[in-house]
Amino acid sequence: MKKTYVKYLLLLVVIISLNACGEDFLETTPTDEIAVTDLQETAEISPEILESTLRGVYTMMYDLGTGGLGGHNDFGQKATDIHTDLLSADMALSKNTYSRFRLIAQLIPTVDFTYNTGNYMHWRYYYRMIRSCNLVISSVGGNDAPITNANRFTMGQAKAMRAYAYFYLSQIYIPEYSETSTILPIYIDSENPENQPQSTTKDVYDLMISDLTQAISLLNNFTRTQKYEMNKDVAKGLLAYVYASMGTSDANLKAKALAEEVIAAGYPLTTQAQALGGFNDVTTPSWIWGVDIDANTGKHLHSWWGQMDLFSYSYAYFGDTKSIDKGLYDLIDANDVRKGQFLNNPNSGWYLAPYNKFYHPARTPRGTGLYTNEDYIYMRADEMYLLSAEMSAKEGLTSDARNRLKQLLALRYSNAADYAYVDNLTGQSLEDEVYLQTRIELWGEGKSYFAMKRNKATVTRGSNHLFLTGQSFMYNADELTFDIPQSEIQNNININ
């Protein structure tokens, strides 16, 4: 009995460690005292312990301070989404009173590795996620463990989450895909905390593809109880993005096939009404992956909603407004319902803010300081339609690209004549249109940066950007890619 009690105490320490901010930069082990064997033995007594540990991994995606800074810019995945949207220039910091996200809007951290905001924060967050996934994987036998009914769903989720973390690292810390370039240290063993050298891009991609391919198989027949959990459709969507980021013809076709599989799973497109409905409800049928923000997870100002929503007691309302780039807004057709997502009042202090896209259901300006009715979106069906169309256009599958694009546009216009022009698009003009519609449809959802890189675009900052107005940057510019942070270089002798 005493031994069992001690094991439960050990579990508590492990779970807490998953959410604590430690001093060790990569945090390749959760504590100095808990070994993988402790978690393994404890899980044998009570298998649900591993589920609790896995929930701790998911919690990192929306918890405060997961990037090690603890400021109001540091709140997991959605903090990354704002950073990358600002880098893509589709999101403009149009008002800046409290200097939240000011540095990244000025493109300062991306050219100076000593800045923690951005460089350190994202590096720590994703490697902390990797460390935690490795702990879970080790606790069920390790990377090559025989798969049983008892561990397959846990292993599948942990491997998919590990790949998710490496994918974001591979996108924001390298300027473009190149197999032979050395980029990220690879960690796949929670019991080998020694600093690793940089691996090649090919090695990182091979790991992501392997993890996600295994996860898709392992998660077959997995029925999740919460939408924040990885299922095989989320894993397929992530693998589609991995392949799409490679840019080869073979990879493009694989990305298209995976996107089509997710579409076939039955998630409907976001309706016209939902496009103006606030994007605040995880039960929305088109949402493939997201999390319910309730009374236990509500994050006040220190959150994505605290940065974006005018209908909350937020930075967005009081002086750090994020708006759609004026140039992008001007490209939205007047009859497109998405034009109405943004406040078109030049005399307003919130010109082109997402007034009708992201908002609290009560719609009371600066109305609430507890965001319990505003959920986080990570992936939705519309992305897969657009990704399939993009890959089809790039591979000359013109009819497929047109059809998927028109299916989306049919829910953004009331009159088919408004999007009939798609039937005349071919080649580069079709690719450009899919890219444009991706930027419009997914504005503010953390996807514009990846689309910019896939399409090798040059972005120009519109007139409503406070900083670097009118300046243009290529997708692989130094200013648009984070640097390996100073702390990692100082602590890891294998990093050059």
Radius of gyration: 22 Å
Calculate the mean pLDDT score and round it: 89
The portion of residues forming beta strands comes to 5-15%
For the biggest β-sheet, the strand order reads 1-5
CATH class placement? Mainly Alpha
Query: What string, H for helix and E for strand, traces the elements in order?
Result: HHHHEHHHEEHHHHEHHEHEHHHHEEH
CATH topology: Serine Threonine Protein Phosphatase 5, Tetratricopeptide repeat
Report the principal-axis shape: globular
Number of domains: 1
Protein name: RagB/SusD family nutrient uptake outer membrane protein
Domain SusD-like N-terminal: 88-243
Organism: Polaribacter porphyrae
InterPro entries: SusD-like_N (IPR033985), SusD_RagB_dom (IPR012944), TPR-like_helical_dom_sf (IPR011990)
Written description of the protein model:
Belongs to the SusD family. Keywords: Cell outer membrane, Membrane, Signal. It is found in: Cell outer membrane. This is RagB/SusD family nutrient uptake outer membrane protein. This protein has helices at residues 2-19, 36-45, 48-59, 77-88, 102-105, 116-139, 152-172, 201-218, 232-244, 249-264, 272-275, 304-308, 315-318, 326-330, 381-394, 398-409, 427-441, 448-454, 486-491; strands spanning 91-93, 182-185, 198-200, 287-291, 322-324, 376-380, 458-460, 472-474. It has a single domain (2-274, 378-491), classed as Serine Threonine Protein Phosphatase 5, Tetratricopeptide repeat. The model is unreliable at 1-34 (pLDDT under 50). The chain starts with a helix and ends in a 5-residue tail after the last helix. The relative contact order is 0.14. It has 496 residues and is mainly α. It has a two-stranded antiparallel sheet with strand order 1-5. It has a two-stranded antiparallel ribbon with strand order 2-3. The longest helix is centred in the first third of the chain and has 24 residues, at 116-139. The protein is built from 19 helices and eight strands.
